[in-house]
Amino acid sequence: MPESITITDNRSGESFEIPIYNGGISSTEWRKAVPGVFFHDPSFMATAVAESAVTYLDGEAGILRYRGYPIEQLAEKSTYLEVAYLLIHGELPTQQQYEDWSHEITYHTFIHENVRKRFLEGFHYDAHPMGMLVSAMAALSTFYLDAKEIHDPESRQKQIVRLIAKMPTLAAACHRFSMGMPFVYPDNSLGFTANFLSMMWKIAEPRYDANPALARALDILFILHADHEQNCGTLAMRTVGSAHADPYSAAAAAAAALYGPRHGGANEQVIRMLTEIGSIDNVPDFIKSVKEGHGRLQGFGHRVYKNYDPRAQIIKQAADDVFAITGKNPLLDIALKLEEVALHDEYFVSRKLYPNVDFYSGLIYQAMGFPIEMFTVLFAIPRMAGWLAHWVELLDQDQKIYRPRQLYVGADERAYVPLGDRR
Ligand code: ACO
Questions:
Q1: Residue 300 CA, ligand 1 centroid: distance in Å
Q2: pLDDT value at position 32?
Q3: Which residue's CA is minimally distant from atom 16 of ligand 1?
């Protein structure tokens, strides 16, 4: 006998027992009991939108696992490409599967010349690289017409490989354009992250070999950002995917959501905030102004984490390895002071506001030489694996099109007033 909740409809006096499955109650059961009464949950505060086996997250305990594997173990022992395979296929690859997967990704990194020459070069000279990336991802759907065959497993797999493989190429192309620098073609002799760094930084040398420690640090950041269950961007992917749009269009919608400063755009805002604070002496005044309602402490707080974001903890450790090579980011001391003050302040403590993944990631990116405008792009590259894992899961579950209901609060029926009669 499953656990259940009993609801009494006080209008009729009737009681209904609704079973609880996996910690949730089914809306189908609810609708049977009280038809026509909808949940009013505008920001999905208490709505489980899917049954998912991709990522487990316990925000109270600060736990994050991909397909059951703790994020700490993956960050220490795995690679982004392996994690991408895990997220999409549900299991860690065997040696052979990993080699085949890496080969496939490596040999799909090139983008059509028209994407770069005609499409990307059509942007205004100071276009934000994230805006360019969102558009370029959508534009890819016009180059791969077979992407519409979403129920054909072979076509689906092909688009998955293409999307993961082309993200670094597109990302670097957007950066190079904004710098007025020539495009760098992918180098198939390099690994995923080293290849991205080559496309970012190569100038005239025949081959760009990234510092292995920096490539590894970036790969760890890619692992940490690869998925985060039903976040705003993933919901966008699932929503557009539920309409059976092709994965390029759905992923562009997901990336557009990520662009927002409340979501993946926060890492950019963190650096702007730290720069504005300018010195650790100004931290107390800044905290005071946040508490008075003048803006937010960027990189703090999370809809589901009511504890330290485990990703922020791993990033903090990775930061030391990076700063040992690049030199310390001068903004680090301000960040550490902000964290210390906030974690002892009643305002933040009572609201359970802790540093999230964005609080320290920007400091690393900046120390590595990435311009601030690239930060959300760096988030989008690995998040593609998570978006695709959720997209595949959604299609495999044969989920209906996403179509919530509303509580109408507008005007009652009224007669049209001709333009000349309106006051
Ligand atoms: N600084 C100051 N106060 C905050 C912050 C913050 N960063 N975050 C939340 N609060 C306060 C709110 O003012 C509110 O206080 P109140 O109860 O007195 O009104 C309370 O905490 C709850 O805040 P909500 O906005 O209701 O929380 P919600 O879950 O909707 O928001 C969000 C989560 C958007 C992440 C929020 O914490 C925020 O804006 N943080 C800063 C931006 C950021 O770092 N975003 C990255 C998130 S991680 C990611 O997407 C990858």
A1: 7
A2: 86
A3: 351
